[in-house]
Design brief:
Jelly Rolls; 22% strand; 2 domains
Length: 443
């Protein structure tokens, strides 16, 4: 075998050098080393010998040792080519605590548009760029380091998005299923609004100058996560919830039925709404003259001067989920009848100066300002039905108008019926059903 000994080979023409012909085998003897100091491909990866301790942008064809004494971000190459690969290794064994972030730099990682994390102590990860559809994919053994998204992934209810946030709205019972949690703990805390069903209004028949009272709003509870940015209601501040990868049953409370016509009866209490450890209580019922308003998330109004208002925030939570019902008012000009007390709302008690419902509260958790949990209006002896501020509670009845129901999925109380001859006008309005809304950062 002939031997050629030279220190350097350079091309005589052009800028390329060919070794051998097609089909030839070029042998690298045992113990020999090929050092890649340029952009050569096809020779395998070479490791950077300096351990990385701070954020950097990786280059294809290289391996990198990471000192995880602190978290380090590895930004992947921009505009990679199919077949580009690199290796990242936790050299100091603290990746589970100080995650190694793989910044996608505009390319997908495992088909997703999110940065991922290495969270395995002393783990190594080899990734290969497969193309624009799936982006960087793993090419390692199953017991090597795994990649985890920064964000949780969940399903259930009606799903919408607002910027980087996903919103799950439950208008009936269902399940909020967390399929996986994020590698950043703060992103696993969710925002929520839990509104119970409003209480039903009381009914009225002839024979007395008193009018029926309205139902109270369903309990309203809200918490905004530390990474969220929407405009919350004044009641925000309930218990924070950090989710785990499990299924959370959701209960959406129905509104309490309004009392039947001609019955001189109480409406029904609204039903509770539940998410995880959070329960919002159904609104208290309105009643007929001579009886008391019901307790609940917000209380039902008093139907007469000698009757008691229903207590709100029952059972008690902090911040309060609602307010007391309002007292009976009157005599209501121009007639002699006393107006039934208004239902309490999440924002205020039923007012004692009128029979309009207690105000609700407004939150933008669903990406637009929306009012919830207003009290129902009490029955009136005048020709004008009592209103409910914020449009969520039902209107109180009048001698010529039927009491109306609270708005569906807003938790408003039902309106109380007015002095009337026996007929449809003497029935109480039903409470509005509740709602559960869950929101979190998903990208």
């Amino acid at each position: 075998m002939s031997t050629v000994k030279v220190n350097k080979i350079t091309p005589r023409t052009s800028n390329s050098i060919q070794l051998g012909e097609s089909g030839d085998t070029l042998t690298i003897p045992a113990g020999a080393t090929i050092q890649n100091c340029g952009t050569a491909t096809g020779f395998g990866l070479s490791f950077c010998t300096t351990t990385k301790t701070s954020p950097f942008t990786a280059t294809a064809g290289k391996g990198f040792f990471i000192n995880t004494g602190s978290a380090v971000t590895v930004t992947l190459p921009a505009s990679p080519s199919v077949g580009d690969e690199l290796i990242v290794v936790d050299a100091t064994g603290c990746a589970a605590t100080n995650n190694i972030t793989l910044g996608r730099n505009g390319s997908k990682i495992k088909g997703g548009c999110a940065d991922l994390f290495m969270t395995t102590d002393r783990g190594g990860l080899r990734i290969v760029y497969s193309g624009s559809s799936q982006g960087w994919v793993t090419a390692t053994a199953g017991n090597d380091a795994t990649m985890q998204s920064a964000f949780l992934c969940a399903s259930g209810g009606t799903e919408t998005t607002s910027g980087n946030y996903k919103i799950h709205t439950f208008t009936s019972d269902g399940t909020f299923t967390v399929n996986s949690v994020g590698g950043v703990a703060a992103n696993n805390e969710v925002s929520y609004v839990v509104v119970a069903g409003g209480g039903g209004g009381g009914s009225k028949s002839s024979g007395t100058s008193l009018n029926a009272s309205a139902g109270g709003a369903g309990g309203f509870r809200e918490s905004k996560s530390g990474v969220d940015c929407y405009s919350a209601s004044p009641l925000e501040g309930s218990t924070n919830i950090t989710v785990t990868a499990t299924a959370f049953p959701i209960t959406v409370g129905g509104g309490g039925a309004g009392a039947a016509a001609c019955a001189n009866a109480a409406g029904s209490t609204g039903s509770n709404s539940v998410f995880s450890t959070i329960t919002s209580a159904g609104g208290g019922f309105g009643n007929s003259p001579g009886a008391n308003g019901g307790d609940g998330g917000s209380g039902g109004g008093a139907p007469g001067p000698s009757a008691s208002v229903g207590s709100g925030n029952t059972p008690p939570v902090s911040p309060p989920q609602g307010n007391d019902g309002g007292p009976a008012t009157g005599p209501a000009s121009p007639g002699p009848a006393t107006a039934g007390g208004a239902g309490g709302g999440a924002g205020a008690a039923g007012p004692g100066s009128s029979n309009a419902g207690g105000v609700g509260v407004t939150t933008s958790i669903s990406a637009s300002p929306t009012a919830y949990a207003g009290g129902g209006g009490g029955g009136s002896g005048t020709g004008t039905p009592a209103t409910s501020p914020c449009g969520t509670g039902g209107k109180g009845g009048s001698p010529s108008a039927v009491a109306t129901s609270g708005t569906t999925n807003r938790g408003g109380g039902g309106g109380g019926a007015a002095l009337s001859t026996c007929g449809p006008v003497s029935a109480g309005g039903s409470g509005g059903s509740g709602v559960v809304i869950i929101r979190y950062k998903f990208q």
